[in-house]
Task: structure prediction
Amino acid sequence: MEPRPGLESGPGSGAVEMTTGEDLPPGTEPRHPQLEGPLTEELERAKGLGFLGPMPAAEQLEHALGFVGVIESELGRAPGSVLDLGSGGGPPGLVLAACWPATRAVLVEANQRRAEFLDHSLARLGVAESVEVATGRAESLGHQPDLREAFECVTGRSFGRPAVTAECGSAFLSLDGRLVVSEPPDATTDDDRWPSAGLAPLGLARPRMVRFGRFGYRVIDKATPIAARYPRRPGIPAKRPLF
Result:
C-alpha cells in the first residue's frame, strides 16, 4: 500500500463546505458522541503500537468522524452496510462501527497483527458481535460471494493510489452505493486524480469533492456492476494501475 499522507486539508475551490459543531447540516451529527472518550483511548493504543501516524488521536478521531458526517449527509441516515479498506490502526472503520452499531460493518485488513488489534478494540468498545474483521488482501476478498458488491458504502483512508482504491473498492460496493475516500491536503475539486474515463470500467461515476471542516473527501457513485475480472490478482492493481 502507499504511504499514508498527511490528513489535514485546506479549503478547495468550489467544494461543498460542511462544518463541525453546532453548524452541522441535519443528519450529520455522530449518533454516539458518548463514544468519543473510548474511541480516543483505542486510537491512542494504536499509536502506541505504531499503527497510526504522528497526528494526535483526537485529530485522528475528528478526521474519522468526517466520514460519518459525509456519509450521513449523502444518505440522510446511517448506511445499512459499510466496508472499510485497510482499517489498520482503527480509523475510520473502528469509528464507523462504533457510531453505527445497527449497520453491517466489515473491516478489511491484510496484516494479522493489526487485524488482531481491531478485534480487541471492537470487543473493548462492545460492538464485536456486529462487526466482522476480514483478514486478507482486498483483491482476494473482493471476489468472495458474501462480500462482493454487498455494501452501501465503502471507505478508504489512504488505502492506496486512486486507481488501487477504486479497483478494490468497487468490488465491494453495491449498485448506487458510495465510495468515500479521504483526500490529501492539496486535493482540489478537479477530478484529475479520479478521471471519469478510468473509473468507468470499474462501474464508478461522478466523482466529487466534499469538505467536512478542514478535511477533504472524494465521493464516487457506483453506476454499473463491476466486471467479473476485477479486482485483479493481489499486487497487480498497484503494479499495473488502470489510470
